[in-house]
Structure formats: structure tokens, C-alpha cells
Amino acid sequence: MNDTSGPAVPLQRDGGTGPADGQEPGAWAQLSRPVQLAVTGAVALCVSAAVVHVALVFLYVAPANTVSRQYQSQIDAWIYPYFEQDWRLFAPDPQSTHQQISARTSTVAANGVTQTSDWIDLTAVDDAAVRHDVFPSHTAQNMLRRAWDAYETALGTDARLTSRRTLMLQEYLRNIAVQRAATRVHEPFDAIQLRVVTTPIEQPSVRPVSNRPAASAPGVRYLPWWQVTTDDL
To answer: Are 110 and 219 in the same domain?
Structure first.
């Protein structure tokens, strides 16, 4: 007697290994060959882009090494301005100075006399917006400070605009200052100037940070007058 206790195997019409009668092939098998190649290529492209992005961000935040020095220009071209990181791989990079950023505006009157406003403490305005707010906005907390930090770093100590990125950061900082000043100066103005007072933050006496530079005396920096158009207001 034949043993029929085993599972029944569906018969194939042509003896092949394809799906049995009444069974639909998988979704992938239903796709045409060109579509399969296009999907495979798109997936491979996304995975490659993700791997390259993670590798470049890793080299950017990692301590300086031979690879990051050799490909510094390529890394910067990928990171800036959209993927900039403000932290380090093994520990945060806390501020060692405090900047008090103020602005004043100037307007040329009809008689040709230039009228200059008083200094507006933009940092104090941001601090007032953050104080006693349970959920302060990122704009009030970091926008002006980060814009100045990025511009100062790109500008360096020679006070020359040496790259397209520096020009972009200058315009970004100017636009923020113009928008903040426009809410305080209720009339059009032709130019704006920034004053930055930098006060060092002293190291804690209990556990000093060895890699932080020693505190120096507060410094005052006046930026040149930047022209403002009606489109900026």
C-alpha cells in the first residue's frame, strides 16, 4: 500500500519550478526586468549616499587625522552649509566665551544728515524671550549666537572676506540683525552695524577643563556698516 501521509505537492504543468496553478507569483517577480533594475539601482544609490554621508560626518566630527586632513576640502564642501555639526565625537564643545551682540541703525534724512540710532541689545532681547519660558524657541536661544559664531570662525582674524561661504554667513548674520532691529526701530533704515562684546567664561574651580584656553580680558569688536535695502526690511 502506498503511503499518502506526506504533504501533497502541487503538480506543475511543464514540470518546472514555477508557481503552481492558482498561485500568484510574488510582487517582485511580477515586475518587468527594466523596473527591477531601476529599483535595484535606486536602492543601491540611496545606500551609497547614506554610507558616504555618515563617513563624511564622522570624519568632520572626529579628531583631526590623516584622512580628514587630506580630504578637508571635500568634507567641507559636503558638510557646509546644510550638515554643519556643532559638537565633537567624544564630548560636547561647551562655550568658553559669552557674546553680547548689539546693533544700531543709520538713516540718511532728506536734508542729507545721517541719523544714527542708539544701540539695541539683541542678546538681551533673546534672553528676555527665553527667561521664564518652559518651551523657548530655537530662534531665541541659538539663531543669533550661532550665526555670529559661524561668521567669526569663517572670517578669522584678518577681517577679510576670503570665500563664498564667508559672504553667505555675513549675509545671514546681517539679515538676522536687520529683522531683529526692525522690530525695535519702527522706521526704515539704510545701514546697520553690529557691536560684539566678548566676555570669557571662567573655568570652574572644582574641575578645570584642561583643553579650554585661559580666560582673557573682555573684548569689544565693531563690525563695519552693512547696507540695508527695502527688500531686507
So the answer is: yes
Cell of 79: 558638510
For 58, 59, 168, 208, the CA distances from 88, given in Å and listed in that order, are 10, 11, 24, 19
Give the number of domains in the chain: 2
Alpha-carbon distance 60 to 75, whole Å?
7
Is the pTM higher than 0.70? The answer reads no
The secondary structure of 94-154, three-state, reads CCCEEEEEEEEEEEECCCCCEEECCCEEHHHHHHHHHCCCCCCCHHHHHHHHHHHHHHHHH
Is residue 106 within 8 A of residue 190, CB to CB? The reply is yes
pLDDT mean for each 10 residues of the chain (233 residues): 52 49 67 88 94 92 88 86 70 75 91 88 91 85 88 70 78 92 87 92 62 64 89 67
State how far the alpha carbon of 192 is from the alpha carbons of 15, 69, 129, 146, in Å. Answer: 84, 38, 23, 19
Residue 111 belongs to domain spanning: 97-202+215-232
